Each structure stands twice: as structure tokens, then as C-alpha cells.
Amino acid sequence: MKTVHYPLFKREDLDGFFALFQNNLANFVIIAITMLAMGYPAAIVYGKVIPGVAMAVLFGNLYYAHMAKKLAEKEGRTDVTALSYGVSTPVMFIYLFGVLKPALVLTGDPELAWKIGLAACFLGGVIEVLGSFIGKWVHSRLPRAAMMGALAGVAFAFIGGELFFRTYEMPVVGLIVMTIILIGLITKKPMPFKIPAALFAIVIGTFIAYSIGNSNLGQIKEGFSAFGFYLPIPTLGLFHGLQLLSTEMIGLFAILLPISIYNFIETMNNVEAMASAGDRYSVQEAQAADGTGTIIGTIFGGVFPTTVYIASIGSKWMNAGRGYSILNGFVFLFASVFGIIAAMASIIPVPVIAPILVFVGISMISQAFDSVENKHYPAVVIAMFPYFANYIMTRFNFAAGEAVANLSHAIVPLGQGAMFTGLIWGSILVCLIDESYKRASAFALVAAALSVTGFMHAPRLAFNISSEYALGYGLMAVMLMGFHFLYRKNHTAED
């Protein structure tokens, strides 16, 4: 093993820190606004949820900094970038509208609903830890183009696309900030006085927003009033939540199982993305770390599963090391404990934060194509499509309604289980391009099984042998096997 000096902190870690911190901040701004609007009191949102997840973020960031050090020493490199860690945006929305909102509606008690959220999050962490034992097996059998394409679909719809929309909510502010981000983080040009691009963009954007009246001084006053002391305190609430989840709220399992499996796959995809960029971490270890971090978060009041963050590639592009991860963990905990997150959520306009996440979306989609063979580009593209449907579906609170129906009645079933659908179609197309029709048929059979059990194209887990989707995938599997024998026969005849 070659001895190397892998620095604890370097200048590039500043850009990585501000990008990662703002990614997390953007999610928590949405969490805070949404939960308060649902009827959860500030005491739960700022006093329990955010400090609890901050504890999970601290654990994960420290652990991934440790993993980066191990990898640097193992490979004798100093350019290793630690995996980013935070709340998954798609999972966040599903927990908000699929767990916390129905729990509050059915119980009418924010305290009980929060405890149900704790139990749901805890079970999600347990599933991911258990899933780490099969992570390597799944990782070795899914084509890279399928995994990268499904991940790019999330980045395109929920990260880049969604936040690009938010950028235009304040055109003057958003366009200026977007330009700074593109110059500083895409073309890598230095900012004035060598200020990190992300920080420079936030300062300039916030200043312009208040100067031209897009934001008012009342937001600053509101922000300062949010300062306080929100110490993360261990809670036994998840045990009461587990009791409720196993009785009155048992129907939530139909949502929890597939989204927990999705989180398990998302970790695998994001680790794969970093491997394609040059840093090959253990998928199994990352999945166990993610699940453990989520469990730690629930012990302190957090109700959102954590995962290897989609921003990992963006941090790699910035040449960050491990210091950005360590700094993010401690600063985020400090900001949560003293109410700085609450204050920043009030003071900094979302269109100022949005362009940073747009950059993350751009980097993820670009990496998806950079990391596969040219001939597999079509597989990346087709794997992205289901998340476009999922995005439209979730923006109508999963019910679709007349607006979505006017586009196509298939949007909702296509968006249900979008991660699985994207992986399946990406894998099938890779197999077809590589002339492996037998493997393509196997993936079609997997799709049929997922459709029968409700993991795909269904609102909940339920055994439905008469599913038209399962029938379609089954017939597709038979047809693909037919092509396998046909082309094998033709090749034999040519030989």
C-alpha cells in the first residue's frame, strides 16, 4: 500500500461545501414550508425534524470522509472525492405527500403523525441496511447505462428541471445567479477575489432580490426571529409510531416498501456514478452507511431517509476532497441547532438557491452519457423517460386529476414505480444493442413480476394476476426469446 498524504481540507473543498450545503438547505426549505403549510407546528419542524436529520447528515458525512481516506490510501491517490450525503429529493416528496400528509389527515394530531413518520423512516433505514447484503449482486447484474439513465431521469425531472423552473420565479435574480453558477462551476472560471462561485452567487443573488423588491425586509425580520436553540434530543416516539404503523396506519406499508427499495437502488446508482468518474467505493458499505444514518436520524427526531447524494458528481467536478463533507456535517448541525436553517429558509429566496441544484442536474445527466459506451446512449435516454411521468404525477399529489388525464391516462401508471420501469427499459435496450436477447427476455419477465405484485404501474402493493402490464411484459419476454432462437439460427447458418 502506497503511503500518500490525503489532505483533510483543500481550497476546492470550499466550493464543494457550499454546493452540498445549499443542496441540503434547498431541500430543508421545501420541507419546512411544506410541513408548516400542512399543519405541523414549528416546534416539530424546527425543533425535532431538522435537528434529527442533521444528526443523520453529520454521521453520514463523517463516515463518507472516512471512506474517502481509506480509498485514497488503498489506491495511493490524493484526488479522491468523498461521497456527498443528504436527503433524496424524490424520496422527500414521497414522504411529505405519501406518509406525513396522510398520517396527519387520518390522526388529526401533528405529534402522532410525526411519530408515524419516525417509524416509517426507521423501517426505511432497516430495509436499506438489510439490502446492503444483496447490493453487490444487484450492482453486478444491472447494466451501467440502465442505472445511469434512471439516475439521469431523476436529475432531469426533479433536480435540474424543477429548480430551473424555480429560477424563473424571480427572472432578474435567477438569471444573474444562473450565469454566475455556469461560469464558476461549469467553465471553472474564478470569481472576483477568488470567492467560491456558489457563495458568490448566493450573496449577489440575495442582495439583488432585496434591492429590487423581489424580497421584502419583513422576511429578514422573520428570519431573525427564528433563531433559537433546537438541541437534537433522542426520542422514543418511533416506538409509539411503530405501534400505530402496525395497526391504524398499516396501509402505509404499500408506500414504504417500494420507496425503501427505491432508496436502496438510488444509493447503488449514485455510487456507480462516482465509480464512472474514477472513485470506486463499496456499494455494500455505502448502503449500510446510508441505512444506519437514517436510523440515527429517527432516534433524534428525523423523518426523512438519507442517501448518497446526487451531488457527488458535482463535487467530483469541483475537485473537492473529503474536507467539504466533514465541514458540511458540522456546519449543518450547528445551523440546525441554533435556528440558522430556519432563518436562512426565510431570508434567502428559493430562486437564489435553485441554480446550484440546476448545476447538479446538469453534471449528473452529463456524467450518465460520459460513463457509458456511445452505442448505449439510447438506453440512457429511454431509462430517463419514466421519471418525466413520475414528475408530472407527483406534482398533482399522485392523484393525477383531469389535468393529467387530458395529457394521457397512462402518465400515472407509468410514473408509479418509475425507478423500476427506467431500470428495466434501460437494461432491455442494452441487451438488445448487445444482441443478448435471452437476457432481455429475463428482464421483461422481471418487469412482469413487478407489475403483478404492484411494484410497477400500480398505486399500492397488491397481487394482480390480471394486470395488463404484466401480460404485456410477459408476451414481450416470449417474443424476445423467439428473436433469441431466430438470430442464433441465422448466425449458425451463416457460419
Short structural description:
By secondary structure, this protein is mainly alpha-helical. The chain has helices at about 10-40, 40-75, 90-105, 110-140, 145-165, 170-185, 195-210, 215-225, 235-245, 255-275, 285-300, 310-315, 325-335, 340-345, 350-370, 375-395, 400-405, 410-415, 420-435, 435-455, 470-495; strands at about 85, 305-310.
Keywords:
495 residues, mainly alpha, two-stranded antiparallel ribbon, transmembrane helix, 21 helices, 2 domains, 2 strands, globular, transmembrane, NCS2 family permease, single chain
Indicate how many domains the architecture comprises: 2
Rg calculated over all Cα atoms: 23 Å
Low-pLDDT runs: none
- The number of helices is 21
Keywords: Membrane, Transmembrane, Transmembrane helix
Protein name: NCS2 family permease
Organism: Desulfobotulus mexicanus
Transmembrane segments: 21-43, 49-68, 80-100, 112-133, 145-164, 170-186, 193-212, 224-242, 249-265, 295-314, 326-346, 352-369, 376-394, 414-433, 440-458, 470-487
